[in-house]
Structure formats: structure tokens, C-alpha cells
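Lab meeting, item 3. Inverse folding demo.
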């Protein structure tokens, strides 16, 4: 190849090289243009971001030079854009002197040591709050020794922060108060986490489970209710957590050694846990049981009342009515079981003709419906029903808005009141027309009532009595009418005795005009006294006549007694002569007598003996009527006296073929008395028994005694005595149907009683027809 060719080749290579370099430079320029455009776009974006950023960046050079954004000048209220950090505040604009000095100091420290800081500053005359965060400027931002300051407008953030702090303080106080309330609550309370494990308990919970403290209880997971399984408190807590609804259940627990019934409440919380508390319902259940029993007892009691009772609920439906209410208004149990409304009950009462007759029944019913909201404590009405029935109705609004009605049937009471008024009028008419003078004095001694006879007897003026004078004033006015004015005090004494002492007393008073009255005061049940005046003038005269007649009869009786006594003595003289001559003839002084004559003489002696006894009995009865018998008292051996009396009557008993038995017990002992009289008394009782006993009968004399008394018993097995004969055996010589003719006048028993009673003893006669007779005499030692 030629030199020219090599030159051409070299020239072509050089041209290719230049072209290649130009192309490379072109591509490099294009890349640089793209990079410049990217940088310009990034710069514009960064400037836009800085302009829109809530924070403004200020670079502080080592010499304090700054290039702040325009917004910062506006935030600080500066008119000129500052060039140095010290120009951020003046005496009137920008930062305050203290804030600026602190900022310069903290910025210098950040430039030297790289320590960051935060500072809140305020501008003069502005409410704006700026937050400055300072740090050493990153490498590449500016020369070494620079600082980067970020300015934040924290005005709104500060207000929100202050509000948040205030809200936090309020919530903290509320939380502390709530915590204190929960801690002081007497109810066991707790909190479970989402896993249902105990996270917090109060002091009441700790005391209930007898734990040491809340931390110990939570750490050990001590449950309040035993058996924390599927049916325990965890089941309720799980249900509340899963459903998001509160759950409650009643469960037993042992607290302080006692079995209690608790109502467990589980409440789901938004944070996922479950809060709970327990209420002791043991006493509540007992109270409900007692209230239920009380209600049942009250209803039972109301059913037994005579008054009808009906109770309505606040919704005006019938809640309860007793049996008298159903009977009174003729209501069937089937209809009442539907709990009828108040208006329907009134309508049914009207249908039964058991409400008063009214013209406008709807209005009348509306007025009664208003009782549910009445202000009165109790509303009372009197219902006069057709047929003469009278009802007393009481309506009592109840505190819960219900109504209680009570119906009392006053028909009988009204009838009784009418009858009482009639009786009072009859009594008043009778009181005023009685012949007896009557006056009623109150407990204070004042005259309350009087009749016409009372006023006429005393001659009192009506005005004087109408003033209801006291008994003392009335007695003073009555004194001149009496024959003895001092006797007027008897009125006051009688009234006081009846009102104060509650005793009935009486007395007699003569009037000045010759009349006589019997006064009497009778205590009345109401505390008053009834004073009566009965005119006894006629009975007084009759009494005087009877007294004079009695005195005349007593004088005649004394004459009769003296006559009988004299006759007894006069008869004894010829009787003694007859007896003496008969004994001489019987003794043979006049010569021997034939058997026939001798029997005649024996009959004369026997008759004279009986006549002597009869005269002695008559004389004894006569002396009894006059005076008590004279006793020659001394120590008497009763056994010896009884034996002597029995021996004296042995012949008499032998004549009648009587089996005469004698039983003398040593216990009869001795007594103080007249031996002769006691012997006569025993003989009279024996003679009465022997005379009343048929032939071949039996008579017994028995004596015994004790430390206080001695007893004499005479019995026979004769025909006995009738009740009428027993009643008169001791007081009159009446013939007895069982006595034979030789029993005489029957004076033995009266004489025996006279002798025994004179010794302070008693005589009893016991007999039945056909059963014999028993005479018992008891003598006191």
C-alpha cells in the first residue's frame, strides 16, 4: 500500500476517531442534560416539599449566618429577612430576648458538640408557639461547624397537647376515684383478662376468699365461688366475653364460714377483658321468702275479715280480692281470674245492683277512676244500695300508683243504731215517767241527767238543774227540804262511794213534810253513778204498824211461855201425888192386890212416868223459846255420860224387843260441858230412835272423837223419814208417819239440838224412806 493510501487510511482513522469522540461527547452531553433536568426536577420537588412541610429548615453557619425562608419571617413577625441568627429577635419583634439567648447558646453547643436540643419559643405580640429542634448539620449541607434548625408551628399541637394533658389529668383523677370506689366497695369486685384469668381484685374480694392481699389472690388465682369449671363463674365470664352481653347467675359460696347465696354479674369490656362483681342475695332471698309468706298470711287474714278488700295495680287491673268482697258483690272466681280492669269491676258491681243509684254512671265511674291519682290519704264514702244495704267504702291510693278498696257492710250497724235511737227515746220517756226519782252524776260529781220526779221531789228550778250543778251544791240546795238538814251530806257520800269507790250504798232520809225516802247510789259501767230516791212513806207506816204488832206478839208469847211454865209446875204436883200413891199401892202398903189390880197400878205408874217426861220436854221447849239453857260447866267424861244415858233406856228398848247395841270408843274422851244436860240430849236422841223403830229392830249408840271434836252417833234400821219430815224434825213437834202412838209429840230432837248447840256443837239428821235414820251430834272440845 502506498503512502497516500496510508495517509488516506490514517486520515480516515483520525476522522473516525474524531467522529467517535464527537458521538461520545454527544451522548455524555445528553446524559448531563438529563441529569440536570432530573436535578432541576428534584430541586423543584424538594423546594415544593419544603414549602409545604410543617417544619422550616434553617442552616446556621459557623459564623452565625442564616438564610431563613420567608414563612419563618412571617411566623416571627419580622419586617426584614434576617441574615444572622442573632437577628431573629429585636426588642419589639421576633423572639424574646430570653428565648433568643437560649437559642443562640443551644445552637452553639450543637455546632461544637453535636448535641441536639428541643426548645419552645414565642414571638413578640403573637400567640403562636414555635418548637425548635436543633442538631449538627449533616455533611454536605454546608461547611463544617454548621447547625441545622427545624422550626415547627406547634400552636395547634400545643393546644391539643394541653387539652390532652388536661383530659389525661381528668381521666387520671377519674381512674383514681374509680379505683378508690372499687377498692372501698363492700361488694367483691374483680377484673379478668381476655384469657379469663384474674388480673385485679378489690379488698372485699380478698376478705371474702380470706387471702393475704390482692397480689397474692391474683397470683394464686383464688376464685370467689368454688368449682370454677364449666358450670362455675368462668362459664359465665366466658359467655359474657363471647356474646358481648352482660351475664348474671346465682351461685352459692362460703364467706366467713357461712354458706351464702351470691348473684354473680359478668360484664364484657371493650378492651377484651371481663369485669365482675358479686351481690349477696341470701338476705334478699330470705326477705323475699318472708315477704311472700307475709303476703300469703295477709291474704289469709284478709279472707277472714268481714270487710271486703280489693287491691288494684298501677295499671288499674285487679291484683287481689278477698272472699267477703266476692260474696258482697256476687263475683265468680272464674271471672276474677282474668284480672279485670277497674272499670269492668265497677260495671259488674252495677250489674249486681251493688252500687248507689246515680244518673250519670260514666261520670261517676270516671270520678272513682281518678282515685288512682288522688292526693288525699284516704277517701271515704257511704253507699246506700237498693234494698236497704249500707256500705262504708274506704279508698286508699298506694305509693306505687295502685289503689286499695275496703268495703264494710254497715247495714246491721245502721239498723242497730236506729234501734238504739228508738231505745234511747223509749228510755228517755220511761226515765221521765218513772215514779222513782232518778239522777245520773258524772265521775266529777256533776249532775248529768235527771227525770221529772227528781225535780218535783226537791222542788228545784229547771235552770238550776240545766246548769249541771255539782253534788255538793245540789246537797246544799236540798238541805232545807229535810227534817234534819245535816243529812243532806248523805247525797254527796253516796255519789262519791259509787263514782270513786265503785260501791253501792244506800240510806234513808226523812223530809220536813213527813215523807220518807230511801236514797241509793249505784255505780254504772261508764264510771258514772245512778242516784235513786224511792218514796217509802207508806212502807214506813206499814213497817211501824208491823213493828208494833210484833211487839204485841212478843208480849203475848212471853205470857204464853209463862203460862206454859206455870202449868208445867202446877201439873207436876198432882202428878207426883198420883205417882206416889200408885207406888204405895204397888208396894203393898194398902194390902195385897189382885193381879188385875196390880196390873192397873203398873199401868198408872208407867203413864205417870211418861207424863213426867212429856212435862219436862214441854218445859224445856218453853225455856228454849225464852232464854238459852243454863249450863253447869265442868269436865265431862263423854263415854261415861253416854253409857249412863244408854242404861236408862235399856228397859224401854227391852219392852219393844229392840236389839240395842252400845259402842263406846275411848277416843270420845272428855269435853267441857254440863254432864246432866248432855245425858238428857243423848237420851232424847235414843228415845227418838227407839220410838221410831219397829219391834225386833236394831238401834246403835256409837261414840268416838279426835283432837278437835267428839262425836255421838245414834242410828236405827226403822222405816226412815221423808224429806219433808226431815226438814221439820228439829223445829216443830210434828207427827211423823213412821212414829208409833207412844212416841208422844216428838219433842226429843228439838230438845237434843238445843242442848248440843248450847255446848257449841251441831246436830245432823240423815234419813231415807225405808233406809233407817242416822243422827250425828258433834261437840267441840
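The presenter then showed the designed sequence:
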Amino acid at each position: 500500500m502506498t503512502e497516500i493510501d496510508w495517509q488516506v487510511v490514517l486520515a480516515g482513522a483520525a476522522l473516525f476517531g474524531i467522529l467517535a469522540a464527537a458521538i461520545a461527547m454527544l451522548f455524555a452531553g445528553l446524559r448531563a442534560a438529563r441529569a440536570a433536568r432530573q436535578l432541576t426536577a428534584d430541586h423543584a420537588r424538594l423546594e415544593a416539599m419544603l414549602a409545604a412541610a410543617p417544619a422550616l429548615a434553617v442552616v446556621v453557619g459557623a459564623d452565625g449566618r442564616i438564610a431563613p425562608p420567608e414563612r419563618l419571617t412571617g411566623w416571627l413577625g419580622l419586617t426584614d429577612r434576617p441574615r444572622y441568627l442573632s437577628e431573629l429577635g429585636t426588642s419589639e419583634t421576633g423572639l424574646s430576648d430570653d428565648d433568643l439567648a437560649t437559642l443562640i447558646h443551644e445552637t452553639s453547643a450543637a455546632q461544637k458538640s453535636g448535641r441536639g436540643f428541643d426548645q419552645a419559643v414565642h414571638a413578640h405580640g403573637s400567640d403562636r408557639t414555635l418548637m425548635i429542634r436543633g442538631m449538627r448539620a449533616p455533611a454536605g449541607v454546608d461547611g463544617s461547624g454548621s447547625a441545622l434548625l427545624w422550626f415547627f408551628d406547634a400552636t395547634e399541637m400545643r393546644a391539643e397537647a394541653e387539652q390532652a394533658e388536661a383530659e389525661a389529668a381528668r381521666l387520671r383523677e377519674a381512674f383514681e376515684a374509680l379505683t378508690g370506689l372499687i377498692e372501698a366497695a363492700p361488694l367483691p369486685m374483680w377484673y379478668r383478662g381476655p384469657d379469663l384469668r384474674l388480673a385485679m381484685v378489690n379488698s372485699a374480694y380478698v376478705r371474702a376468699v380470706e387471702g393475704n392481699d390482692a397480689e397474692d389472690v391474683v397470683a394464686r388465682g383464688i376464685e370467689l365461688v368454688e368449682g370454677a369449671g364449666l358450670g362455675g363463674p368462668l362459664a359465665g365470664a366466658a359467655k359474657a366475653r363471647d356474646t358481648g352481653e352482660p351475664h348474671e347467675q346465682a351461685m352459692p359460696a362460703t364467706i366467713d364460714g357461712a354458706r351464702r347465696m351470691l348473684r354473680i354479674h359478668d360484664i364484657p369490656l371493650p378492651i377484651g377483658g371481663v369485669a365482675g362483681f358479686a351481690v349477696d342475695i341470701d338476705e334478699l332471698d330470705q326477705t323475699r321468702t318472708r315477704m311472700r309468706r307475709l303476703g300469703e298470711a295477709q291474704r289469709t287474714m284478709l279472707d277472714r275479715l268481714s270487710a271486703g278488700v280489693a287491691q288494684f295495680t298501677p295499671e288499674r287491673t285487679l291484683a287481689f280480692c278477698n272472699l267477703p268482697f266476692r260474696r258482697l258483690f256476687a263475683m265468680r272466681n272464674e271471672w276474677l281470674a282474668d284480672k279485670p280492669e277497674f272499670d269492668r269491676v265497677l260495671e259488674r258491681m252495677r250489674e249486681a245492683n251493688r252500687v248507689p243509684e246515680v244518673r250519670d254512671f260514666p261520670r261517676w265511674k270516671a270520678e272513682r277512676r281518678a282515685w288512682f291519682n288522688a292526693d288525699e290519704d284516704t277517701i271515704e264514702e257511704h253507699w246506700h244500695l237498693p234494698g236497704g244495704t249500707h256500705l262504708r267504702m274506704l279508698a286508699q291510693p298506694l305509693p306505687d300508683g295502685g289503689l286499695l278498696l275496703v268495703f264494710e257492710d254497715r247495714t246491721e250497724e245502721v239498723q242497730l243504731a236506729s234501734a238504739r235511737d228508738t231505745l234511747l227515746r223509749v228510755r228517755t220517756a220511761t226515765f221521765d215517767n218513772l215514779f222513782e226519782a232518778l239522777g245520773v252524776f258524772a265521775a266529777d260529781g256533776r249532775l248529768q241527767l235527771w227525770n221529772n220526779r227528781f225535780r218535783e221531789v226537791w222542788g228545784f228550778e229547771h235552770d238550776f238543774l240545766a246548769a249541771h250543778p255539782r253534788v255538793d251544791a245540789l246537797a246544799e240546795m236540798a238541805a232545807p227540804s229535810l227534817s234534819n238538814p245535816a243529812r243532806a251530806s248523805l247525797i254527796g257520800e253516796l255519789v262519791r262511794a259509787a263514782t270513786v269507790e265503785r260501791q253501792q250504798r244506800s240510806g234513808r232520809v226523812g223530809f220536813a213534810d213527813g215523807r220518807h225516802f230511801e236514797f241509793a247510789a249505784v255505780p254504772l259501767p261508764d264510771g258514772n253513778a245512778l242516784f235513786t230516791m224511792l218514796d217509802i212513806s207508806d212502807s214506813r207506816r206499814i213497817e211501824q204498824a208491823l213493828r208494833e204488832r210484833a211487839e204485841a206478839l212478843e208480849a203475848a208469847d212471853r205470857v204464853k211461855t209463862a203460862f206454859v211454865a206455870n202449868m208445867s209446875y202446877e201439873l207436876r204436883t198432882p202428878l207426883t201425888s198420883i205417882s206416889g200413891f200408885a207406888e204405895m199401892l204397888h208396894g203393898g202398903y194398902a194390902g195385897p192386890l189382885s193381879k188385875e189390880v196390880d196390873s192397873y197400878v203398873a199401868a198408872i205408874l208407867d203413864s205417870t212416868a211418861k207424863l213426867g217426861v212429856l212435862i219436862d220436854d214441854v218445859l224445856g221447849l218453853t225455856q228454849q223459846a225464852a232464854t238459852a239453857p243454863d249450863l253447869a260447866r265442868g269436865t265431862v267424861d263423854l263415854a261415861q255420860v253416854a253409857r249412863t244415858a244408854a242404861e236408862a233406856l235399856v228397859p224401854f228398848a227391852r219392852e219393844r224387843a229392840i236389839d240395842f247395841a252400845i259402842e263406846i270408843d275411848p277416843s270420845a274422851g272428855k269435853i267441857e260441858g254440863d254432864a246432866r244436860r248432855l245425858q238428857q240430849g243423848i237420851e232424847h236422841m235414843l228415845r227418838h230412835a227407839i220410838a221410831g223403830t219397829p219391834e225386833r229392830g236394831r238401834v246403835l249408840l256409837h261414840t268416838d272423837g279426835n283432837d278437835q271434836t267428839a262425836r255421838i252417833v245414834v242410828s236405827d234400821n226403822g222405816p226412815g223419814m221423808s224429806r219433808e219430815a226431815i226438814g221439820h224434825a228439829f223445829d216443830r213437834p210434828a207427827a211423823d208417819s213412821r212414829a208409833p202412838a207412844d212416841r208422844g209429840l216428838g219433842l226429843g230432837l228439838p230438845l237434843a239440838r238445843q242442848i248440843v248447840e248450847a255446848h257449841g256443837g251441831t246436830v245432823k239428821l240423815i234419813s231415807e224412806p225405808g233406809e233407817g235414820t242416822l243422827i250425828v251430834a258433834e261437840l267441840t272440845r
